[in-house]
């Protein structure tokens, strides 16, 4: 296990300078303000702070917004706005692009779901934040063109999972690494270097609640995973 705080010792020059901008979302008081750290704290205190339940409105997907959704969204927006690294944002909770005032605009745009799986909040199932980062390609305020770039143009992407521990899984185009929050020091520690999907395994993961919408090919493939012996016999 690497006990060094996240990103410590990494070069700041391209293509690595965005590593710092991904995680340190505000330095106006010279103290790093980490979105994931703040949301993790809110998730753990949700029951005590009366953050469970419906906020009374819906998001752009037509889903009922939870109180914790709103708080997480506000944390992401406010911290990215104060980072001086972000020029605009797209959130699942907002219909329009979220602009950053001219004096604080940076060279990146960020898209995110501030709290995915919020329907699981009340029963304490793991939930998380999903994010993607691109370099801004237009002048002035962020536009749709900045966010509609292909996946290969992404500077970084990842997710943060809030469960028994808080872990960030991040790729900046040079492999995938996992970092776990050490609450005693408030830092993310590299705990899962060079993460890869195993070539073979005994577990598959898919939302079978949507099985009726699957294509014929996907349905057949999942069947072969569930009943490999039957599939081999048929061949």
UniProtKB/TrEMBL annotation:
GO BP terms in the entry: fructose 1,6-bisphosphate metabolic process; fructose 6-phosphate metabolic process; fructose metabolic process; gluconeogenesis; sucrose biosynthetic process
GO terms, molecular function: enzyme binding; fructose 1,6-bisphosphate 1-phosphatase activity; nucleic acid binding; zinc ion binding
InterPro entries attached to this UniProt entry: FBPase_class-1, FBPase_N, FBPtase, Znf_CCHC, Znf_CCHC_sf
EC number: 3.1.3.11
Domain CCHC-type: 22-37
SUPFAM superfamilies: Carbohydrate phosphatase (SSF56655), Retrovirus zinc finger-like domains (SSF57756)
Coiled-coil residue spans: none
Domain of life: Eukaryota
Protein keywords: Carbohydrate metabolism, Hydrolase, Magnesium, Metal-binding, Zinc, Zinc-finger
Metabolic or biological pathway: Carbohydrate biosynthesis
One GO cellular component term noted in the UniProt record for this chain: cytosol
Catalyzed reactions per annotation: beta-D-fructose 1,6-bisphosphate + H2O = beta-D-fructose 6-phosphate + phosphate
Keyword Transit peptide: no
Presence of keyword Transferase: no
Residues spanning the membrane: none
Family: Belongs to the FBPase class 1 family.
Binding partners and assembly: Homotetramer.
Name the record gives this protein: fructose-bisphosphatase
Source lineage: Eukaryota, Metazoa, Ecdysozoa, Nematoda, Chromadorea
């Amino acid at each position: 296990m690497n006990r060094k705080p996240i990103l410590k010792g990494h070069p700041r020059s391209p293509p690595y300078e965005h590593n710092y901008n991904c995680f340190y979302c505000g330095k106006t008081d010279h103290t790093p303000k980490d979105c994931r750290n703040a949301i993790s704290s809110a998730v753990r205190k949700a029951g005590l702070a009366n953050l469970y339940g419906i906020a009374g409105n819906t998001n752009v997907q037509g889903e009922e917004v939870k109180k914790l959704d709103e708080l997480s969204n506000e944390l992401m927006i406010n911290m990215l706005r104060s980072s001086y690294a972000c020029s605009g944002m797209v959130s699942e909770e907002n219909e329009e692009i979220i602009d950053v005032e001219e004096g604080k605009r940076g060279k990146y745009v960020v898209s995110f779901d501030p709290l995915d799986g919020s329907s699981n909040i009340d029963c304490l199932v793991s939930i998380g934040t999903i994010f993607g980062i691109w370099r801004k390609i237009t002048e002035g305020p962020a536009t749709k063109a900045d966010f509609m770039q292909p996946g290969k143009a992404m500077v970084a992407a990842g997710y943060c999972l809030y469960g028994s521990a808080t872990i960030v899984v991040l790729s900046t185009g040079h492999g995938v690494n996992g970092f776990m929050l050490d609450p005693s020091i408030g830092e993310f520690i590299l705990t899962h270097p060079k993460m890869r999907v195993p070539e073979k395994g005994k577990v598959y993961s898919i939302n079978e609640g949507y099985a009726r919408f699957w294509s014929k090919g996907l349905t057949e493939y999942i069947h072969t995973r569930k009943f490999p012996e039957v599939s081999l016999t048929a061949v």
